[in-house]
Write a structure and sequence with these properties.
By secondary structure, this protein is mostly helical. The chain has two domains: 29-76, no CATH class; 98-266, no CATH class. It is 41% helix and 6% strand. It has helices at 41-51, 71-76, 98-113, 118-122, 136-143, 159-170, 176-196, 205-208, 218-226, 239-255; strands spanning 12-17, 29-30, 37-38, 261-266. Helix 3 crosses helix 7. It is globular, with a radius of gyration of 20 Å.
Amino acid sequence: MKKKESLNNEKSPVLTRRKSKNEPEGRTYLCELCNKAYLSYPALYTHKKLKHENTNIRGRGRGRPKKDQNEDIIEKNRYNPINITFFAKEGRTGKTSLKEIDNCIDLAFSNIYNNSKLNRNKSRNMKIYKSIEEHSFLDKFKKDNHDLNKNVIDIHETIDKVFINYLNKMSEFCNPTYFTELIIFVTLFREYLNIVNKKINNNEYTETKDAENVPNYCNKFINKFLFPNGDNSDFSFLKEDSIDLIQNICYWMYDNNFTYYKISLKK
């Protein structure tokens, strides 16, 4: 069994094992018609389709409407980092068109690897790239046809392909400015995975391995790579936002069966 990672930060992501579908924990998708809770949106959608397709909601007549008993929970989970509502927050919400994706990739590359950032990158043992064509991941992502309906069926697909699939899917939910930040974050996470893991047959770790063990690296990526000096970072990310974002990425992989580990917060 793989070891669980945890850090003594006030708020850190930690690993947990995949939960049984009979367990109540983690059921954040609520049916507003009957108050049943589900582990994923597809399960909630199927439930509504089968149980409530022909349901009519009738008013209570005169008087003040009764407050929905789940209103507070729904509000709390509105920007929950473990699902796509994470992107509904102001500053993130929107859509990145297929024509805009390539420009976002160019901006992300420039942000990470421009000459003014050489000292920052060298301090982390990051590679030096002069063009996107030299960067196997961003070059591959730029040449991808960005098929939003494409699903990676093979759960043992490489980390690079899983990350590209994730980015393609999330382009539907966030504006180009935030999507550029998302590309930067994913690229840095990939960069860290390749720094701490040796090449396999002269190929980078993320070009060869599947995503099963990716959540094991979340804590050290956040605390030692992005924020080695506490809450201050020379990357353009806030620590709390970074923790939420790494949850979103890893939970998406968990929800799509690319890993049997998910992360949750430990205070």
